[in-house]
Amino acid sequence: MYLGIDCGTQSTKVVILDAEKEEVIAQGHAPHSLISDAKGKREQNPEDWILALEQAYWQAVNKAAINPSSIRAIGVSGQQHGLVVLDAQGQVIRPAKLWCDTETAPQNAELLQALGGDDGSMQRLGLVVTTGYTLSKLAWMQQYHPSDFKRIAHLLLPHDFLNYWLTGQCMTEAGDASGTGYFDVRRRGWCPDVFELIPDASHLRNALPDVIDNQQMLGKVRPEVAKRLGLSADVWVSSGGGDNMMAAIGTGNVQEGRMTLSLGTSATLSAHLNTHYDGLHPSIAHFCSSTNGWLPLICTMNLTGVVEQMRQLLNLSITEFTDMAASAPIGASGLTLLPFLNGERVPNLPQAQGQLLGMTPLNLTSAHMSRAVFEGISYGLKYGLDCLLAAGLRPQSICVTGGGAKNTFWRQLLADLLRVEIVCPAAAEGAALGAAIQALWADHHRQGDPVNLTELTARLVALDESTRVVPCSEKGEAYHEAYQTYQHRLRFQFPELTL
Ligand SMILES: Nc1ncnc2c1ncn2[C@@H]1O[C@H](COP(=O)(O)OP(=O)(O)O)[C@@H](O)[C@H]1O
Ligand SMILES: O=C(CO)[C@@H](O)[C@H](O)COP(=O)(O)O
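Above are the sequence and the 5-O-phosphono-D-xylulose SMILES. Below is the predicted complex in structure-token form.
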């Protein structure tokens, strides 16, 4: 048995993979709370992730009705970019600022300018640092919490922190590290020189964790944790990775030609590359994968949160809200939602607010509003796919995971808008499954019996063909027209935007 843990923005998910049966036999789930304010603060207490992990773990173990001592290894996936700071005693100094925190937009703008803009950032880091990446969170902390900043002895990301809790080791790997803004994604190594752009930050060089390869084990579970979780004394923990990196594994996206769409709190669209490619559009985050390759990715920040907020406003269940949307025509009769409630990463508008445009007596209805939500949150993905296509990354189909993947209407909308087939994996939790598969892969390597990851995912990632949706060209034309209206309105409202 292999355990996969995914610490997402809204919850932690745990899956148990039976490697002999080649299937997920149980899963567990526990929510997280968010500390937020109107200025863009989005933080969580790392200790809450541990509580959620334990809760989700016991749910999964009890559902599977297994003895936890049969678990051989663990892999951890985590929301990317979050800043977890520990002092010299290994204690958390302050809540973690998350990937979706936009309070640090001014610090990111300053740092990007100091790096020499998009081109300078690309030259030094191999990608363009964007609001949400870890670097600007450090600059913010130095500015507003200087004494806490001085105490930083360990710089971790959310999945690194859970690995630290499990094993006592502060280490990381290239996939998640590539979203920090102080990591050179070409070399797959730290770029501590960028700390010179932050005052009084020389101590951060010594706070960087060692980077291990993805097929390596990070360490064994600490005896105290093994006892708490009922594990044997000999359970190993793999390198793990960012949630998008692990979702790539859990959807079989470990070779060129594949693409993964994750519909969680964020929307991400990612491909696989065997080498780093310098010619990508600056909107594409040229991350490393957690499989020793690269994972060019587009991320939009406003997704299922917007659905949740609007359906609550209309007092509808998610099914009713979806049915409402389906009952309105494509293009919502001219109603367009620019859904940037919490700023946006793609398009690059970190401090934008949402806008509802084109209201008429005809379209100001719950049905049109619901449709405008699904369309508005999907257009950023259309833009992102166009950027990936321009780089020659063309998928035959897209494998979709995350909470929103369950929504058949939305999957069809995306297939029609993006003009590509969309299908779900049989195991719903792609990132948690990816983490379990990585643990199995690393376990083989540890035992001197290396297996090929592509073959492993071919065996372990089954697709649920009943979820496959095929694009309809007629609807595609209608979405194309609606997308033109969206783009026109976007440019008009945000003339500073370079698309
Ligand atoms: N049928 C559905 N349609 C749209 N959104 C859904 C549906 N089912 C669940 N969701 C949304 O999925 C989100 C959770 O997705 P998840 O991938 O677990 O997020 P994260 O990993 O960011 O915590 C919730 O906001 C939930 O409302
Ligand atoms: O910031 C990014 C990608 O760069 C996000 O995709 C986070 O990794 C959060 O993921 P979810 O909680 O939405 O899965």
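The chain is about 35% helix and 20% strand.
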